[in-house]
Amino acid sequence: MSPRKAENELTRGMIMDAARELFVKNGYQHVSMRQIAKELQCSHGAIYYHFKNKAELFYTIVEEDFRSLDELLQTILDKEMPKREKLMEIFLGYIEFGLQHQSQYEIMFLIKDEEVRSYLHQSPNVSYERFASAVYGLCEGKASIGQIWTVFLSLHGFVTHYCRSGQTYDDVKDLAMVHARFIVKGLLD
Amino acid sequence: MSPRKAENELTRGMIMDAARELFVKNGYQHVSMRQIAKELQCSHGAIYYHFKNKAELFYTIVEEDFRSLDELLQTILDKEMPKREKLMEIFLGYIEFGLQHQSQYEIMFLIKDEEVRSYLHQSPNVSYERFASAVYGLCEGKASIGQIWTVFLSLHGFVTHYCRSGQTYDDVKDLAMVHARFIVKGLLD
DNA sequence: TACATTATTGACCGATGGTTAATTAATAAG
DNA sequence: CTTATTAATTAACCATCGGTCAATAATGTA
Predict the structure, then answer these.
(1) pLDDT tens, position by position, B21-77
(2) Is A132:A94 a contact under the CB 8 Å cutoff?
(3) Which of these CATH numbers, 1.10.287, 1.20.58, 1.10.10, 1.10.357, describes B63-188?
(4) % helix / strand / coil in chain B, to the nearest 5?
(5) Among the ranges given (A58-67, B43-52, B150-159, B179-188), the one the predictor scored with the smallest mean pLDDT
(6) Rounded to a whole number, what is the distance in Å from the CA of A158 to chain B's nearest CA?
């Protein structure tokens, strides 16, 4: 019975960080508000002071993370390097993002759950369009729209599989390189 | 109060069929024994007479489905045709199987649940090993182990995506051809 | 110090779900 | 017909979960 630890106040950021870690590790459905609270060493009721409900907490995290995907893509595009290497970086970056935000990725591209889905609008489409037009530009007409789609599906397969097996990007870094090289080769040569 | 409907006895097969459909539609965690029972128009307790628990029911389904995938692969391998075409057939066959047996495929490769996956350690690996060694043999040393894995993941991405959007194999036959050709080309040329 | 505001607690609710145990009906065997 | 076995029903148990809320402690402020 010692409410309010002054030196250790609860913030939205703290909640999001703890929640993100749990969501990534266990998936949306397997994380309860009580678990998050336990991680933060606060009561689960406290979280509801900062977020309306579980879905809103999750959606806030997803939005933040997808902003970082946009930044990542832009960062790579702004670099000075050969286009072929840029493609490699984009593909690897996409895989890395997918694996480091597994729960989010799942929501965007895999999950059927209507309750959660209703929170998103066209984010997946927008995300793909950004990706596709970047790749298209870097191929200088060598690749068709259909081929870029094929490329996306191949990356998607990689991410999907390792999302399911729950491994980290570092665990599969080498395999990701092989995968990306295979795709770049098929695209440009 | 009318236990035991004689003319409509409950069998393991009936339970598995109903459960498979629900598992695929909603995912392991989102399907309750009560839902399955409702679908079968029996009591949920009845299922426990035929299966020890939910996980065992699920595991039994998965095992059965893996067997049918293995059979498909063997059928193709037994055919008489050039190796390049055989590769195409395997890839297209894999996609076709995935899309025409979406239920099985999703159970086998898409479900993430830890509790469940602890039940099936070998099945997916064994199934993949069959696929990989078949492809390896057909490439005559041109492909590395890593590349074959890459190929598998690319196919996986295709199937996964179109499983989600619920299209039939016929709907995406042409795209599947593009995809498979892309892969074969990267593998052999 | 007294007061108002803010943050946190912990009990509680209704729902759901896995699982088990007691019980009852249908069927087969003798 | 009687009895044993099998297969199913029903209800109850227990845990968990999302979410709410009144009570209350910590803090800033006047």
Answers:
(1) 898 777 788 899 999 999 999 999 999 999 999 989 988 988 888 888 889 899 999
(2) no
(3) 1.10.357
(4) 75, 0, 25
(5) A58-67
(6) 5
Q: Which nucleotide lies nearest residue A43, CA to C1'? A: C9
- Classify the complex by whether its ipTM is higher than 0.85, answering yes or no: no
B147 CB-contact burial (10 Å; exposed 0-12 / middle 13-18 / buried 19+): buried
Q: What tokens appear for A92 in the block? A: 């690897």
Long-range residue pairs from B76-84, CB within 8 A, at least 24 positions apart, any chain: B77/B134, B83/B138, B83/B139, B83/B140, B84/B184, B84/B188
* CATH classification number, B1-51, choose in 1.10.10.60, 3.40.50.2000, 1.20.1050.10, 3.30.450.90: 1.10.10.60
Which among A147, A156, A133 is positioned nearest to B177, based on CA atoms?
A147
CB < 7 A to strand C: residues 38-77, chain B: 44-45, 48, 52-55
| Nucleotide showing the shortest C1' distance to residue A4 CA | C8
Q: Is B91 exposed, middle or buried (0-12, 13-18, 19+ CB in 10 A)?
A: buried
**Could you give the maximum distance between any two Cα atoms of chain B, in Å?**
69
Residues in chain A: 189
- Region at B43 (left for phi over 0; alpha for psi -120 to 50; beta for the rest): beta
Per the listing, tokens 């050709």 go with: B181
3-state secondary structure of B110: coil
At B79, list the tokens. 């055919």
Q: Are B120 and B60 in contact (CB under 8 A)?
A: no
Q: How far is the CA of A103 from the C1' of D18 (A)?
A: 20
> For residues B36 and B22, is the Cβ–Cβ distance under 8 A?
yes
CB B109 within 8 A of CB B161: no
In whole angstroms, C11 C1' to A91 CA is 51
